[in-house]
Amino acid sequence: MTRSICVIGNLNVDLVMGTLAHWPEPGTETFLDRCDLRPGGSAANTALALQRLEHPAGLISAVGSDPLADILAARFSGRLDRIRRLDGQTGISFGVLHDGAERSFLSFGGHLAALDLAMVEALLEGWPLEDALVLVAGGFATPGLAAEGEALLTWLRRAGAGIAIDPGWPDGGWTPATRAQVMGWAALSDHLLLNDKELTALAARPEDDLAAAARSLSDGLPERCHIIAKRGPRGASCWQGGRVCHASAPPTAPFDTVGAGDAFNAGYLAAIAEGAAPEAALGRGCATASRLIAEFPRGTGPLADRWA
Question: Looking at domain 5-299, does it have CATH number 1.20.970.10?
Fold first, then answer.
């Protein structure tokens, strides 16, 4: 039986433009060749990819009260989507693409600061959480929700859901307090989804010591927790208990890598929800991400038939 996926977290507008070799001098104007205005945020990116994989899923989030909110809400009007309208400006991120598939962001949080535990619990009323798989994504982009992260995950566990988290990169860096906070979330989770730099930073290990970092984290987490390292063109790895598995990434021609890790999350979790083993799920995640980062602007058509 296929499990539904509930995605909780940040939804904002992404304005992605490129490519830019060097930041312009103050007071000047630079024209770029390509532009894409679309829903963004870690949680929303994953929910959009799940839509394209045609997997039963819904996004739990909020938008502001300006015209940008209408653009976002229109993409999340399905049976399992729950989007709250809030007073104020909708959050927006301006992403600049550079040569070599690198990117830089300028972000305004806007409405995201108001998303909290009470709001999420209200939005989830009637949502079929029993035996669903829940992803809490972009935790540090929603500070109100992050402050109550353990309470949220405990509530979801009591509702009978499996839990995955992708906290992202903390704005203030990986301090001892931030590491302790994320480890508290991970202890309540079944899947900890990080990129390789996040994993080594969380474990306070050098970036070239990924395996040791993962083993260090495993020692402090329940055996059920799958620690995932998203490694870009090098694929992905999973540590769970004493087991390790890897998957390679298919060849691709990346142009817009914004949301690559979120697309991986969608493919990986869809496979897990369908009963796949971790290695197969890693492969599905890599395939989904590889396809999406070659698109610009991002498409909306189905992806399910392409990964069979």
Answer: no
